[in-house]
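Q: Here's a chain of 185 amino acids. Please give me its 3D structure as tokens.
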Amino acid sequence: MRNIAKYVGIGLLVMGLAACDGKNDKAAANDNGASSSQSAQTVNLMDGKLNFKLPAGMSDKSGKLGTQANNMHVYADESGQKAIIVINGDATSEALDVLAKRLEAQQRNRDPQLQVVTNKSIDLKGQPAQQLDTVISANNQSSWSSVVLSKVDGKLLTLQITLPADNQQQAQTDAENIINTIELK
């Protein structure tokens, strides 16, 4: 669980830095409009045991984070404000709801203004999972974070979706659209 918290923390840090980089995002927004005509692609990880649809405008950025860990995959748009981080963690016997509550407590320790929207059990096409949705605020900007915890072959799988939360309802809908494409085998 400590490694999961570390990787989620890294993901939040990357998103926070991207949100605070001071760049003018109008150019990125225009690019995203052009990219939206591209169709979503299917991501296949863990020898086909995890599949999900990557939204248009996002691509694999795993090698750009300077990590050689092959158990962490990062997908983001060019602005870095929209990201999906997938971590294939260690084996665990702990229940998913217990892990999610611990993750929530760790996030709250880092961000006392953390808004927890939901922490619930979900079903991913027949596979049990836990979903933790939060809103993180830093430097007058908010980010939506949906973390999905599940187990594959007894190992903890974490999928974190981070999106700008200027329009919280839209961010929640966009995250749900990605979560609804997740298939575990």
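Q: Can you summarize the key feature?
A: The first strand starts at residue 41 and ends at 45.
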